[in-house]
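Checklist before submission:
- one chain only
- standard amino acids only
- sequence pasted in full

Submission:
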Amino acid sequence: MAKTVAEVMTRDPIVVQPETPIKEVIKIIAEQSISGLPVVNEAGKLVGVISETDLLWQETGV
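Returned file contents:
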């Protein structure tokens, strides 16, 4: 039987806020061996996701 998202998702993800420095995001992603992070506002509401690809585009100017 096929698994559901609930069975494989991370239940308590590491999150960052919009004002988190990019260097800190890179450090977290590298240390935790993850590909991205949810971005939440002060109320804890999801406002976006930052990924390794986003960071590569930022660094290369693409």
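Reviewer check: The mean pLDDT is 95.
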